[in-house]
Amino acid sequence: MAEYIDVHCHLGDKAFHEDIDIVLAEATKGGVKACLVCAEFYEDFNGILKLCERYPKFLLPCLGVHPAQLAPNETNSELQPMRGATLLDLERAFPYIEENANKLAAIGEVCNIAHYY
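The structure assignment produced for this chain is given below.
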């Protein structure tokens, strides 16, 4: 069987909280040997590190800022509104990334601020 490394997944998303063990077992059966778990938002960072600590050498943390960020949901809509990332998002993220650099496999999402200005 072929072996794979998933180089970009969002297993830290709350959609996987209930069945992460099943998801990882199925991935392993399919030949996946490791997964790079990417953050989208600063608020995800701590949870991703904790998740990857639970599955060392299989889940590898990748922290960064996605160019689309969550906006305040003032409409009570089920859909979460989005906004473009700002320098403030990066300024919040950098110290945490630097502080935890020894735990990271990679940096990413990589925000493209220039796209929004």
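Interim note for the steering committee: Helices lie at 20-29, 45-54, 87-99. The CA atoms of residues 44 and 86 lie 17 Å apart.
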